[in-house]
From TrEMBL:
Domain Glutaredoxin: 8-70
SUPFAM superfamilies according to UniProt: Thioredoxin-like (SSF52833)
Domain of life, source organism: Bacteria
Pfam families: Glutaredoxin
Protein name (Swiss-Prot/TrEMBL): Glutaredoxin
Length: 86
């Protein structure tokens, strides 16, 4: 199952309830994902990560989820299911 889904990268903020809900959704669906709490990064790592987020989400809002070539901004369960084919 893990090999059948595109790579999932979640950019989140540690205090964001929508970010937590999205993580729970991914875990409940047993989807492998990487995440980074942008607010916990410092210095150059934080600047570089924010730059990456802005490349796919100009508003730099959270959560921002990159699924293969697709980007889902916010916790939009229906859109996530469609992109993931679940």
């Amino acid at each position: 199952m893990a090999g059948s889904y595109p790579q999932i990268k979640l950019y989140a903020v540690s205090t964001c309830s929508h970010c937590r809900a999205l993580m729970e959704f991914l875990q409940q669906n047993r989807l492998p994902f990487e995440f980074v709490y942008v607010d916990e990064l410092l210095g150059e790592e934080r600047r570089d990560t924010i730059k990456k987020v802005k490349q796919v989400n100009k508003r730099c809002s959270f959560p921002t989820t990159v699924i293969g070539e697709a980007v889902v901004v916010g916790f939009k369960e229906d859109e996530l299911k469609e992109v993931l084919g679940i």
